[in-house]
Task: inverse folding
């Protein structure tokens, strides 16, 4: 059987703007439909279906009328009919072209425009045809052959051409200026109609004044009314404008517009034909006959001009600059399934990834997840394909979407890959088993292998599966048993996170488990055995110790960013902080607090290999807690206020003079006033941060841990039934590492913000989940437990939704904002970074149920994937510049020291003059103490002459050296020029080679991106098919199970019905046998009576004897009947039996003969006799247990006053409960009557005939003395209705 698949329909948000209609929401066809799809859509209910048929059917009707007109008129001889022929042709053309335009308008954007170009041209041709018909038949007689009449048709031709041009041009500014386009198009159609209708309006005006009686005038009025109604509907878009979405398929304005237009054309045609018939003679007499060129010729000329105009506009449409074509591009997806990502440009053509060169437009209907997918995909994956001005731009269709698009189009901190190419890693989940306590004897957790743990229910705990014990195993990335040290745990879990932190990548590490499972111990450690936090700090400072920047070179701002200050600003900041009375920055020279000195005394000296030596680093730490879903800063410095009461660590006010607070702990000096809660915000990189959180710059492990310990003392802890020091809040210790490269000289830090990298490592100690029925929490402890459990439940919900979205391709909203905990770490799961979780388990049996829930959550968390962080961008400077600069300084100092110049610690800024003066001979003493001294001056003159000669020698040597150096420079310059030319030639060759390689690389990258995109589409398609396959398999399994259940129910019902049929069959077979036997016995008795009567009659008639025939005993007859009831026998004379007692048919079985004491003895001859019977007056269970038959003797008074005895018989069965039950099967009725029958009258002539005695004895049935009736259940009167009577003996 041939079946056609109709095209799929879209809504307004899934098609480009050029295809949209005002007020129409649904029923749009695909904007890239094929011709076959367009034809199929004619038979499908779309928003264009009635538009097509409301013009196609009238076109066929008008064509039929035209053919009828051609058949009726002699066109060759009747020139007067040529204008009507031209008009009728245009009436057929315009609805047919309109129907075709609406049919094929969704093949592409260009096709849509061109189709409507032809539609507008056909309408202008129709207006010209109307003008030709009006000129020939409708013109008032006063205007015939006037100047206006002669210029009327040529003006109509010009109006038709102008209408086509204006209407076609109106489609170009439709998107940018829709109102101007609408006005222009309305004017293009209204003006030709108004001009063509001037003769008609004049006739209507004259008719209204003169009260004419022309029959055609009402039809003209109807035509005008429908024409103006058509214009009104076209311009107002009623009724869909008032109720968008309610008239999408039937009743919208364009359908009404078509109907009104066709109705107006019909009335116009009727009126023209009536005018032609009624005014034929008068017009012929006053107006010359129209020629072929004035009718059909003008129509043909206008048609050719319209085709030229349409061709020009179509060419302009295809020759539009590429930038204008790209103005509207949309990414669309289906409603139920994700379709392969396509792009629809203005032309409606679907361009795949390798063809996209436009600006991306997102619709309001796209969800946020699809938006981000499209945005990041086109911004990055096609960054090479899109122009620079178009890459990363988003054009929205409304202001709300524009704001969202602007926020998403911000430049990320580091380049992000396309979602299809992003490498993802699953969340690393590790398990650590706490050692069992001394008081705990039973454990429920066993370590099976390095990656598997096993949970088994404790004694007395049963799982609801057949009441049996159920052991479950859970697999993790690695399992750490009770003997694993903190260092081993750190090397596997935390060390990779520290390495990523120094390389500029984010990380998150949190501990999860029930209360008392060792989470805080794992994170903090104990004296002598530091936990993960101090080891992370030690590894960081061991790695970046020699490369740390001075304090306050890096300065954090209040928007989660970092700036670089110059050395002067950093020095001023240090001096200002040192001058403060209370330093906010810990001093590294202070003595370590012995309370935590053992925790940070790590002797491992672990460090990161291959640290960037050309960068400077600075570490900032902050410490917050999330208490009752509020964020508090544990490092906040709150000034002491003597007016406000102090609060201890349990959030209870402390009275003056108390030595113990309400928590029964000694009062500490650092008891504090509760800080104000903080607010979360999102920075420009979409990372969450806490506003106003204290961030301290630290320079060593001691300083960092001192800050941590200061906040740790302020953390809220309390004593519960399960844990002596139970954490009542989630704590988050954040380590931020700012790093920036040195400049080219290796001296100063680059202050360009783009070169600064800020990475973060968050160490989270989650509060343990707990049950209030175990902790016995009350008051504030109960509220704290509720908030802890609620936040953990929100974390679990977020993980479940993330897992579902990633596994099944859904786009459910992840409820991060339901809890401050999940909201704070939103960017780790949605953005990029490495996430690790340590599941701490307490193996004691009391925590089995809680541990089971923790294991299930951990197993689910492993299936969530997080984007792999990308490497930080390279700065492009020469590596090793720090040590090169230091080596240069050391070498310079060494050479200066060897030449006697300044050494380290002395001034190095000596002038050249001082160096020359040191080489000159020293001057002698110039003191003249005696006027007759003639030696001092000569010595001075001699010294000065020597200095002069030395100076001249040095000058000459300097000039020689200068000349030599100049010649050397010239020679060197010549060599350098030649080498430079050679190097430039080589460089040009290399550049050409590099350019060729770059082009090849770009081509390969584009090809790679295209292939990756196609792979991504195939993967998504495969995921969709796998999901459908999984769904179908589930449906198949459920239906198979249902069929199996139905089959089993059917088999059980068949077995039950078969048993009932067998039971009923056997029962009715027995009943039928009994009834047949009783009927046979009755018939045999009747036959025997008749035989005996016949014998007696024969004896009387043939052989009369004096003696009476001997009458057989009725007891024999009854015994014979009893035997026949079991097995009928043809023997007429059975052996004689005892006549005193009636033998029961149940003889031979053991009976319970129940005779109540109220029974009256009847003293009849025939009495029921049951052998082997136990006679009881009251039925008892003991008697029933010994027998298998039961008989009850019941007496009642009959209607005739006689006593009626019933023998009720039944079978005894054992019940499941051990008792006895009786099922009644038979009822025998014994009745005794008094002799009330009449005697047979004898003849008076023979008062004592001896032969009549026997006959009367046998024939007087009314004189029977007794009747015994045996009746069984299952018949109306009893199947064996038998008469047993003793013949009444006459008295002699």
Result:
């Amino acid at each position: 059987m041939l079946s056609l698949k109709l095209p799929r329909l879209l809504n307004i948000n899934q098609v480009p703007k050029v295809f949209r209609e005002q007020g129409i929401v649904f029923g749009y066809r695909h904007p890239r439909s094929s011709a076959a799809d367009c034809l199929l859509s004619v038979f499908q209910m779309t928003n264009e279906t009635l538009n097509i048929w409301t013009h196609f059917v009238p076109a066929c009707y008008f064509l039929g009328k035209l053919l009828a007109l051609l058949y009726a008129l002699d066109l060759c001889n009747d020139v007067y009919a040529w204008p009507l022929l031209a008009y009728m042709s245009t009436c057929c053309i315009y609805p047919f072209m309109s129907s075709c335009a609406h049919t094929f308008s969704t093949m592409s954007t260009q096709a849509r425009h061109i189709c409507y170009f032809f539609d507008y041209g056909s309408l202008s041709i129709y207006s010209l045809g109307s003008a030709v018909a009006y000129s020939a038949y409708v013109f008032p007689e006063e205007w015939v052959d006037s100047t206006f009449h002669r210029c009327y048709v040529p003006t109509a031709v010009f109006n038709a051409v102008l209408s086509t041009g204006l209407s076609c041009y109106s489609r170009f500014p439709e998107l940018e200026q829709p109102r101007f386009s609408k006005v222009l198009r309305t004017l293009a159609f209204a003006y030709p109609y108004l001009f063509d209708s001037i003769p008609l309006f004049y006739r209507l005006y004259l008719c209204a004044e003169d009260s004419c009686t022309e029959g055609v005038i009402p039809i003209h009025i109807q035509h005008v009314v429908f024409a103006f109604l058509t214009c009104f509907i076209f311009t107002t878009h009623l009724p869909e404008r008032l109720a968008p979405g309610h008239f999408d398929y039937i009743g919208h304005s364009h359908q009404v517009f078509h109907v009104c237009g066709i109705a107006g054309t019909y009335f116009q045609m009727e009126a023209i034909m009536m005018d032609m018939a009624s005014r034929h003679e008068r017009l012929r007499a006053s107006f010359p006959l129209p020629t072929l060129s004035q009718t059909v010729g003008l129509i043909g000329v206008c048609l050719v001009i319209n085709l030229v105009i349409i061709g020009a506009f179509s060419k302009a449409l295809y020759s539009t600059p590429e930038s204008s074509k790209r103005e509207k591009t949309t990414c669309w997806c289906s409603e139920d399934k994700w379709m392969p990502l396509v792009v629809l440009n203005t032309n409606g053509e679907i361009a795949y990834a390798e063809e996209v060169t436009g600006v991306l437009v997102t619709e309001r209907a796209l969800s946020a997840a699809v938006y981000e997918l499209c945005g990041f995909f086109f911004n990055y994956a096609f960054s090479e394909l899109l122009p620079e001005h178009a890459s990363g731009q988003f054009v929205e269709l409304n202001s709300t979407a524009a704001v969202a698009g602007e926020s998403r189009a911000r430049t990320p901190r580091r380049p992000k890959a396309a979602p299809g190419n992003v490498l993802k890693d699953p969340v690393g989940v590790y398990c650590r088993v706490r050692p069992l306590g001394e008081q705990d004897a039973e454990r429920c957790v066993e370590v099976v292998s390095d990656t598997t743990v096993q949970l088994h229910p404790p004694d007395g705990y049963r799982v609801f599966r057949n009441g049996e014990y159920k052991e479950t195993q859970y697999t993790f990335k690695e399992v750490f048993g009770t003997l694993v040290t903190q260092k081993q745990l750190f090397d596997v879990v935390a060390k990779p996170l520290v390495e990523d932190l120094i390389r500029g990548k984010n990380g998150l590490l949190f501990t999860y488990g029930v209360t008392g499972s060792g989470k805080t111990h794992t994170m903090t450690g104990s004296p002598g055995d530091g936990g993960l936090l101090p080891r992370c700090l030690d590894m960081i400072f061991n790695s970046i110790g020699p490369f740390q920047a001075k304090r306050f070179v890096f300065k954090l701002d209040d928007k989660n960013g970092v700036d670089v200050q110059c050395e002067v600003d950093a020095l001023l900041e240090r001096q200002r902080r040192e001058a403060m009375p209370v330093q906010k920055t810990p001093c590294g020279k202070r003595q370590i607090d012995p309370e935590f000195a053992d925790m940070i005394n790590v002797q491992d000296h672990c460090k990161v290999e291959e640290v960037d030596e050309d960068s400077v680093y600075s570490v900032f730490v902050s410490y917050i807690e999330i208490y009752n879903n509020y964020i508090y800063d544990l490092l906040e410095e709150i000034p002491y206020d003597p007016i406000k009461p102090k609060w201890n660590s349990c959030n209870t006010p402390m009275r003056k003079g108390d030595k113990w607070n309400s928590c029964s702990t000694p009062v500490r000096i650092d008891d504090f006033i509760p800080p104000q809660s903080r607010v979360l915000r999102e920075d420009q990189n979409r990372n969450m941060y806490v506003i106003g959180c204290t961030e301290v710059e630290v320079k060593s492990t001691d300083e960092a841990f001192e800050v941590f310990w200061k906040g740790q003392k302020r953390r809220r802890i309390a004593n519960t039934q399960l844990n002596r020091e139970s954490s009542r809040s989630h704590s988050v210790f954040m380590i931020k590492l700012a790093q920036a490269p040195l400049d080219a000289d290796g001296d100063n830090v680059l202050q360009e913000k783009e070169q600064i990298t800020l990475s973060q490592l968050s160490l989270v100690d989650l509060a343990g989940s707990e049950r209030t029925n175990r902790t016995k929490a009350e008051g504030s402890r109960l509220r704290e437990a509720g908030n802890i459990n609620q936040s953990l439940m929100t974390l679990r919900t977020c993980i479940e939704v993330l897992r579902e979205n990633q596994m099944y391709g859904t786009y459910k909203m992840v409820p991060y904002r339901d809890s401050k905990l999940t909201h704070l770490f939103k960017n780790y799961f949605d953005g990029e970074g490495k996430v690790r979780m340590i599941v701490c388990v307490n193996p004691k049996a009391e925590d089995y149920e809680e541990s089971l829930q923790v294991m299930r959550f951990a197993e689910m968390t492993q299936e969530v994937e997080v984007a792999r962080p990308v490497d930080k961008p390279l700065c492009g400077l020469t590596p090793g510049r720090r040590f090169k600069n230091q080596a240069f300084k050391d070498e310079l100092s060494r050479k200066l020291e060897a030449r006697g110049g300044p050494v380290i610690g002395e001034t190095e800024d000596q002038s050249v003059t001082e160096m020359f003066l040191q080489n000159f001979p020293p001057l002698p003493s110039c003191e003249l103490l005696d006027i007759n001294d003639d030696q001092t001056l000569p010595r001075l003159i001699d010294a000065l002459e020597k200095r002069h000669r030395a100076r001249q020698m040095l000058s000459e040597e300097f000039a020689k050296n200068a000349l030599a150096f100049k010649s050397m420079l010239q020679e060197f310059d010549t060599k350098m020029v030649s080498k430079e030319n050679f190097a430039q030639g080589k460089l040009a060759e290399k550049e050409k080679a590099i350019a060729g390689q770059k082009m090849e690389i770009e081509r390969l990258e584009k090809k790679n991106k295209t292939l990756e995109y196609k792979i991504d589409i195939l993967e998504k398609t495969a995921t969709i098919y796998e999901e459908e396959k999984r769904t179908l398999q589930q449906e198949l399994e459920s239906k198979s199970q249902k069929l199996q259940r139905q089959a089993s129910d059917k088999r059980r019902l068949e077995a039950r019905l078969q048993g009932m049929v067998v039971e009923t069959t056997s029962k009715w077979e027995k009943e039928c046998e009994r009834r047949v036997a009783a009927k046979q016995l009755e018939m045999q008795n009747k036959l025997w009576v008749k035989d005996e009567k016949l014998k007696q009659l024969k004896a009387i008639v043939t052989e009369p004897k004096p003696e009476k025939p001997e009458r057989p005993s009725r007891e024999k007859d009854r015994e014979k009947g009893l035997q026949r009831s079991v097995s009928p026998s043809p023997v007429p004379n059975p052996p004689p039996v005892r006549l005193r007692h009636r033998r029961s048919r149940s003889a031979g079985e053991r009976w319970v003969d129940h005779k109540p004491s109220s029974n009256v003895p009847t003293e009849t001859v025939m009495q029921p006799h049951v052998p082997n019977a136990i006679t009881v007056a009251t039925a008892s269970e003991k008697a029933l247990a010994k027998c298998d038959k039961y008989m009850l003797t019941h007496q009642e008074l009959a209607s005739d006053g006689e006593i009626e005895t019933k023998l009720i018989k039944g079978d005894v069965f054992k019940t499941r409960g051990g008792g006895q039950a009786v099922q009644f099967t038979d009822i025998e009725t014994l009745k005794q009557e008094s002799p009330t029958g009449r005697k047979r009258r004898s003849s008076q002539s023979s008062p004592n005939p001896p032969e009549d005695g026997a006959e009367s004895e046998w024939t007087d049935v009314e004189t029977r003395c007794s009747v015994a009736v045996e009746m069984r259940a299952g018949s109306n009167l009893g199947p064996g209705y038998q008469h047993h009577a003793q013949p009444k003996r006459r008295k002699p």
Summary: The chain is about 45% helix and 15% strand. The mean pLDDT is 76. The longest strand covers residues 615-627.
